[in-house]
Design brief:
With about 170 residues, the chain is mainly α. The chain contains nine helices and no strands. It folds into two domains: about 70 residues, Alpha Horseshoe (Serine Threonine Protein Phosphatase 5, Tetratricopeptide repeat), CATH 1.25.40.10; about 80 residues, Serine Threonine Protein Phosphatase 5, Tetratricopeptide repeat.
Length: about 170
């Protein structure tokens, strides 16, 4: 009898837990969507607060972590930006956009060699991502490797990045 009661309680707990998780995900999505609206209306502080609430509601809402990092960069919080991207990578080591975003952030802070490592990882995950090649090109250029940079920008162009055409021309890539 006691065994059946324990199983029934466990089953009830799992059902309630599942329903709470679904509610948390819905609440997180609501905060995320409001955060996107604030971001689009250039209300960055408000967007950061809303993305933070989305993260509290669902710590696995990686889109909220990525967007909050991006908005943090817009207000000059580069340490917070890097922290958000790194958190996603820690929890999901094959999250391509976290590597691309962190690589871009490292380019902005002058950490070009480390940026290349992140962008290499993004390319390893998805070898057809034009933005990863594009950003890696900027890292290589900053380190004095214009030939390598041009190669990445050509690959980015080949993958459909129209911006790469301008970058190639501006950098006199042959």
């Amino acid at each position: 009898m006691k065994s059946h009661l324990n199983k029934a309680l466990l089953f009830l707990f799992l059902i309630i837990s599942s329903q709470l998780q679904a509610q948390d995900k819905k609440l997180s999505a609501t905060f995320f969507n409001k955060g996107m609206q604030s971001f689009m209306n250039v209300r960055y502080k408000e967007a950061i607060e809303l993305f933070s609430k989305a993260i509290v509601a669902d710590s696995l809402n990686f889109d909220a972590w990525i967007k909050r990092g991006f908005v943090r960069s817009n207000v000059g919080d580069f340490e917070g930006e890097l922290s958000d991207y790194s958190h996603v990578i820690e929890k999901d080591p094959i999250h391509k956009w976290a590597y691309i975003s962190r690589g871009g952030a490292k380019n902005r802070t002058g950490e070009y060699q480390s940026a290349i490592l992140d962008l290499n990882k993004a390319i390893e995950i998805d070898g057809n991502d034009a933005e990863a090649y594009n950003n890696r090109g900027f890292s290589k250029k900053a380190l004095g490797d214009l030939e390598g940079a041009c190669g990445d920008w050509y690959k980015s162009k080949q993958l459909g990045n129209d911006e790469a055409k301008i970058i190639l021309k501006n950098n006199h890539c042959k």
